[in-house]
User: Fold this.
Amino acid sequence: MQLNSLNPGESAVIDSIEADQALYQRLNALGFRPGKYLQVIRQAAFNGPLHVRIGSTDVIIRTHDARAIHLRPSPQHPESPIV
Assistant:
């Protein structure tokens, strides 16, 4: 499952990132790392960018870049209620 396939309110854990080195480093700097829990807050209209929460950090990520982030299902994270 890829990040761009999650709907607002859904959450998962990052399993891997399959991207070229530049994108991988940028995503890593933004907090996207294997094992991290994330939640999709909202998506812009017309398949636009995703608003994602990783811990206490909110990030807006392009749909194209979100395809590089592979996820595994996760039970609801107790510290991050769905807004």
Remarks:
- The mean pLDDT is 90.
- The helical segments are 21-29, 63-66.
- The chain has one domain: 3-73.
